[in-house]
Design brief:
single chain, mainly alpha, globular
């Protein structure tokens, strides 16, 4: 159906798919956040720990970390300050660029990651992965990969 303005409204099938996606996204992120709370972490904290734990020397430039976590530099700076106060990360100056800073995973941050990761993976399995048959997971991946690629290409563009 198209309105007088030319807007192609969603069909019932499209509306159902869209709203189910929204429900799953919100509910899943809420549940994963709840499952991280006993460890004193948020989803944002955990995502930063993962990024740093997988980086060379457990360090990333703040600008690269902001881009990979889809946070503004300002928001990431506040997040890193909170994580510094908890002893999970530290900032280091960048030798090659005096304005640049690195976020670095501390030993405590690494131990937190090692302790929390098995619980987080179990939560992801319980609330998402194990609810699909293996062939459904492949189909889900095939369906969502083009959307993710499209959004990566248009990041920062209207």
């Amino acid at each position: 159906m198209t309105t007088d303005s030319g807007t192609p409204w969603l069909t019932n099938q499209e509306q159902r798919a869209w709203r189910t996606h929204l429900d799953v996204s919100r509910l899943l992120m809420h549940q994963l956040e709840r499952d991280l709370q006993p460890f004193g972490l948020t989803n944002n904290d955990y995502e930063i720990l993962v990024n740093l734990s997988e980086a060379d020397d457990h360090r990333l430039r703040m600008s690269d970390l902001a881009a990979s976590t889809l946070q503004s530099k300002s928001r990431l700076s506040h997040q890193i300050t909170r994580m510094e106060n908890a002893g999970l990360v530290r900032r280091e100056s960048c030798e090659s660029d005096r304005r640049g800073l690195y976020a670095v995973l501390t030993e405590e941050g690494w131990e937190t990651m090692r302790r929390v990761a098995p619980h987080h993976v179990a939560s992801v399995r319980r609330h998402f992965i194990d609810l699909f048959a293996p062939e459904s997971l492949e189909s889900l991946h095939a369906s969502l990969a083009p959307v993710a690629e499209h959004l990566r290409e248009h990041r920062g563009n209207p």
